[in-house]
Structure formats: structure tokens, C-alpha cells
From TrEMBL:
Protein name: Exosome complex component Rrp41
Lineage of origin: Archaea, Methanobacteriati, Methanobacteriota, Stenosarchaea group, Methanomicrobia
Family per similarity comment: Belongs to the RNase PH family. Rrp41 subfamily.
Feature: compositional bias, Acidic residues: 238-297
Principal EC category: hydrolase
Domain (Exoribonuclease phosphorolytic) ranges: 23-152, 155-215
Organism: Methanohalophilus mahii (strain ATCC 35705 / DSM 5219 / SLP)
Subunit and interaction comment: Component of the archaeal exosome complex. Forms a hexameric ring-like arrangement composed of 3 Rrp41-Rrp42 heterodimers. The hexameric ring associates with a trimer of Rrp4 and/or Csl4 subunits.
Coiled-coil residues: none
Compartments where found: Cytoplasm
GO annotation terms (biological process): nuclear-transcribed mRNA catabolic process; rRNA catabolic process; rRNA processing
Length: 297
């Protein structure tokens, strides 16, 4: 691990990586990068590299874990052993279990869980390269992967951290600031500003906390814009599509093709559910259910 720098902010107000205190690191996203996942997103944020994959909605087994009135959203955060300077032990740890739990909960207010009772949506967030802020990077990627999978959501979730170094609040901590700073406050929020994740390491005064939350809100708004642009470049702008559709005369599209296209578009997110259901019919009793069957006899 590198040594603690003498100063984090120079006389010109610039941080070690040249940013101002209220600037986020450059972010780049690409959606639909995994062909076997229902939705996916690769995200780079500064030196962080994260991949998010969404599978589902699909039927949940064992059945006793099913929620009768809503879908279960499972979130798994994992840091690859090669993602950090000192190799980390592969597999779950206390840290990854905690991050998985709080990150999954960050999506609860937005995912419209009532549409898929008894089903599960699995979200996997794999950190390929870590440089501080990986849980927030993973949440930003997961939001887009969920949207890519066609999961109905009330809005997007974005996440960013704010912290304190040299007695000053700074947005989106880099590695030295995270390691040696006085505070680290990762936050996730909906596009309406509702906070869905808030954790804190270190110390902030109540005034600093208030100011920090204002800073992080601005950071999250910038990230929402990046997420929106990614969605528009992949799926187009709803308004533009509406205009185009009006301009097109219906006679130009043969009836059968039109029908097929509509059905495909409408059912995009259910394709997987149907094929999953078919598979289940064929193998009605799965291994996990066999135990349940036995108990009943
Ligand atoms: N880190 C590491 N080894 C670990 C955990 C974390 O090297 O086992 C590094 C990694 O670069 C991570 C940073 O420390 O991004 C900060 O970790 P933290 O637990 O604060 O989570 P994050 O800021 O990544 O959400």
C-alpha cells in the first residue's frame, strides 16, 4: 500500500489526481456486454472497473424462499482476487456480505417487485479493478444492468461517496483519500433524491454531514445524467421514437412483421421467464424440491 501523502489538497485547491473538491472521476459505461445475462453493464470510474450482470426474473428455488406477493432481488458484490494491490482471498468475506446486503436494499424503493410474485432477480456485481468507491461503482453499473434486463423500475439509482481530507469535504474519494482520509460516506439515492444507502467511516460534524449530503446529491445527479445518456444511446429517446412512429405510415410495414416486432418489444423481459417455466415443467421436481416432496409423504 502506498504511503500516506503529506497533503491531499494543494494551495490551488487541487487534489492528488488533479480534481477539484466537488468533482467526480471520469465515468464510462457500456451496456449489454454479456450475451448470456438478461441485462449487463460494464462501468469504468476513474481506475475502478466493474461488471454487473442481471439474471431474471426467473422462478425461485427452493420454493420456500419465494415471496408470495413480490419478487426477491438478490444482490451479490464480489471483488476479484486480482482487483487490488495485495491479492485478496477469493470467495465471500464479511465485507462483501455486508456490501451485498446494503446494496441490494438500495434498489428496494425503485424495483417494482409486485410484478413477479414468487420469482427472483439476481444481480451480480464483479469488481475487476478496485481503486476506492467500488460499492458505489457497482450500484451505478447494477442500475443500468437492471434497466438493460427490462426490469420495471420507478427510476434510476445512482451512488457516490463524499469524505473529508485535510479538514475539507471532497466528493468521490480516490484511493489515498479513502485509505488515509478523516471520513468516507458512501451514499446511493433515487433520481428524486431519496437516500437508499448511507454508510459512514470516520468522523463528520452535523454541519459537515449536511454539507456533504448536498455535495453527494450533486454528484449523484451528474451520474444519473451519464446513466440516462447510456440508456438513450442504447435504446433511443422515447420522445424521438414517438415522433418517428407518427411520421411512418402504417402501410409501409407489412402486417406480420409489425406484429412480430411489437410482441418482441413488449415481451422482451418475459422471454427468459417463459423459457425458464418450460424448463421447469420438464423437470417438475428439482433436486431442492425433492426434500420438500419427501417431507410431505
Ligand atoms: N481494498 C483492498 N483490499 C480489500 C478491500 C478494499 O485493497 O480487501 C481497497 C480497494 O481499492 C477498495 C478500497 O480499498 O476500493 C476501499 O475499500 P472500501 O472497503 O472503503 O470499499 P469501497 O470504497 O471500494 O466501496
Amino acid at each position: 500500500m502506498s504511503d500516506k501523502p503529506e497533503r491531499f489538497i494543494d494551495d490551488e485547491g487541487l487534489r492528488l489526481d488533479g480534481r477539484r473538491v466537488d468533482e467526480i472521476r471520469p465515468m464510462k459505461v457500456e451496456m449489454g456486454v454479456l450475451s448470456r445475462a438478461d441485462g449487463s453493464c460494464y462501468l469504468e470510474w476513474g481506475n475502478n472497473k466493474v461488471l454487473a450482470a442481471v439474471y431474471g426474473p426467473r422462478e425461485l428455488h427452493p420454493r420456500r424462499m419465494q415471496k408470495p406477493n413480490e419478487v426477491l432481488v438478490r444482490y451479490k458484490y464480489n471483488m476479484a482476487s486480482f482487483s487490488v494491490e495485495d491479492r485478496i482471498r477469493p470467495g465471500p468475506s464479511r465485507r462483501s456480505t455486508e456490501i451485498s446486503k446494503v446494496s441490494g436494499e438500495a434498489f428496494e424503493p425503485v424495483v417494482m417487485t409486485q410484478y413477479y410474485p414468487g420469482a427472483v432477480i439476481d444481480v451480480f456485481a464483479e469488481v475487476l479493478q478496485a481503486d476506492a468507491g467500488t460499492r458505489t461503482a457497482a450500484i451505478n453499473a447494477a442500475t443500468l444492468a437492471l434497466a438493460d434486463a427490462g426490469i420495471p423500475m420507478k427510476g434510476l439509482v445512482s451512488a457516490c461517496a463524499v469524505g473529508k481530507v485535510d479538514g475539507q469535504l471532497v466528493l468521490d474519494l480516490n484511493k489515498p483519500e479513502d485509505n488515509y482520509g478523516q471520513a468516507d460516506l458512501p451514499v446511493a439515492m433515487t433520481q428524486d433524491g431519496e437516500i437508499t444507502l448511507l454508510q459512514m467511516d470516520g468522523h463528520l460534524t452535523p454541519e459537515e454531514l449536511e454539507e456533504g449530503l448536498e455535495m453527494v446529491k450533486k454528484g449523484c445527479q451528474q451520474i444519473i445524467e451519464i446513466q440516462r445518456e447510456a440508456l438513450i444511446s442504447r435504446y433511443g429517446n422515447e420522445d424521438e421514437e414517438g415522433e418517428e412512429a407518427e411520421e411512418d405510415s402504417p402501410e409501409e410495414v407489412p402486417e406480420s412483421e409489425e406484429g412480430e416486432e411489437e410482441e418482441g418489444e413488449r415481451d422482451g423481459s418475459f422471454d427468459n421467464e417463459e423459457s425458464e417455466a418450460e424448463n421447469l415443467d420438464e423437470n417438475e421436481v428439482t433436486k431442492e424440491d425433492e426434500g420438500e416432496e419427501d417431507e410431505r409423504q
